Amino acid sequence: MSDIERENPEGEVGGxxxxxxxxxxxQRLHRHFGDDVDPAIHLQGDSEDADSDTIxxxxxxxxxxxxxxxxxxxxxxxxxxxxxxxxxxxxxxRGGMGTVLRVWDDDLRRNxxxxxxxxxxxFDEESGGSNFDQEKLVRFLEEAQITGQLDHPGIVPVHELGxxxxxxxxxxxxxVRGRELKEVVDLMRAGKERWTRTRVLTLILKVCExxxxxxxxxxxxxxxxxxxxxxxxxxxxxxxDWGLARVLGRKDSRESRREKNxxxxxxxxxxxxxxxxxxANPDSPLITMDGDVVGTPSFMAVEQAxxxxxxxxxxxxxxxxxxxxxxxxxxxxxxxxxxxxxxxxTVLNRVLQGPPEPVATLAPNEPPELIAICxxxxxxxxxxxxxxxxxxxxxxxxYIENRVVSAYExxxxxxxxxxxxxxxxxxxxxxxxxxxxxxSAGFFGVQKQRxxxxxxxxxxxxQAETNRAQLNAKRAEEALALAEQREAESAANATxxxxxxxxxxxxxxxxxxxxxxxxLRLNDVKEARARLTASKxxx
Length: 539
Prior knowledge:
Low-confidence stretches: 1-15, 46-82, 260-279, 287-293
Helix content: 40-55%
Shape: rod-shaped
Mean pLDDT: 75
Radius of gyration: 56 Å
Oligomer: single chain
Strand order of the largest sheet: 1-2-3-5-4
Order of helices and strands: HHHHEEEHEEEHHEEEEHEEEHHHHHHHHH
C-alpha cells in the first residue's frame, strides 16, 4: 500500500477545507512550502502566448511575487473538491522522488495517472519547514511544468497540477497503457508478435520527433533509455519521465551550489536515487551530491558523465538515442555485458574510460548502415555526432526507405544503387527494356555486319576476278607480243632457210658441174652425164 493510501484509507486524495477550495495552486504552494520553491518554468515564446493575462501576475500580487516568480502559475485551474474528484485505484510505480498512482477521475469518467511527491516531502509549520526537501520539491514542480508545456503527441500530456490540504503536491496525466521499449526489443529479437527491426525503428523515429520538439523548446531530457519509452497498444510512442530534464539557458540555485564544487571529480559527486538499487541495477539513474540528476550511466553522454553541465545540450540526448539503437542492435545496454549486475558507479567508470564494445563485434550481422548511424550518434566527441534529432531521423528514414544513409556512404553511384534496390520492379522493367534495345541493336548490328561482310566478300571476289582478268590480259598481251616476236623470228628463219636453201642448191649445182668435169677428164662419160643431169635438178 502506498503512503498516500495509508494516509487516506478511503482511497481518495484528501480534499481541502472549504477555505482553500477557491485558492489557486500557487497560493496553497506558498502557504505550505514558502516562497522559493516555484521553479517558474516557461517554455512558450512571446509569439506563442495565446493569453498573456494567464501568465502575468495580477497587479495586486506583482510586488509580492516579483522575486519568487510565483505569479507565473498563479492562474492555474482552481482546485475544487479534490477529494471527491479523484479515487485511487492502485500504485503503478515508485521512484526516489514520487509515487505514480492510477486514479479515477469522477468528473470526466476516465482513468488517469497521478504522480504524487512522497508524503515525507511536506512543509511542517511547527518545525519551520525542516521536514521537507526543497530540492526534490523543485524538481517535482519542474517536471510537471516542463511536461505540461511540451505539447506533442509523443509526450504524455499533464492535465492538472495540484496540492492537497496536507501539503502533498501532485499532478495528473494521461494513463499510458502499453509496454516499455525494452520489452518490445526483446520480442523483436525473439521473433515474437511480428515485431521486426523495421517496426522498432519506426518507434525510434517517433522518439526522435518528440525529442526534436522538446529541443526546439530548449529542453534536454538527460535520461533517455528504453525503460523511459512506452509503446502503446495502437502504435503510440511516448517519451516518459521528464524529472531529470534541463531547460537550457536557465540557471537556478542548484547550479550556484554546483559551481562551488567545480574542482571535485564527477565520480566523487555521484550517488544513486535509490540506495537499495545502488549495488545491483546498472539502469538506476545517478544524482550528484547537490541533488542534480545527471542520468543513467549506460545511456549517458560522455560530457554528462564528466559533470560538464555547461556542455550538456541536444547532442547529449542524441548520444542517448544512439545508446538505445545500440541496445536494439546488440540486445544489451552499452558498457554492461548480458546478465551482469553492477553498480551505476562502476558503469560510470567505464563510460569515462572509453567507448563501449563496438556494435560490429557484438552483432556482426546487423546492417552496416544502422551500425554507422549508431556509432555517429554515440561519438565521444559531441561535435562529431548528429547536430539534431531530425538529422538522426533523416538517416533512419533513409535506411527504412532504402535510400543512402549519410553516416555510411554517399555519392552518385550509391544513390543509383539504392534507387535500384528501392524500385526493383521499375529497375527490372528498365533493365529489360535496355536489354531488349541492346539485343535489337546487336541483332541489327550483326545483320548489318553480315551484310557488310557479304558486300566485302563480293567486292573482294570482284577485285580478285578483276585482278585475274587484268593478269590474263597482261599475259595475253605478253603472249601476243611473244607470238609476234616468234612470228617475226619464223619469218626471218624462213628467209634465212630459203637463202640457205638457195646457197645449198647453188652449192649442189657447182658440185655436180665440178664432178661432171672431173668425170669427163677421167673419160667417164656416163658419170659426167649423170652429174650434169643432177645439176639441172638443183637449179
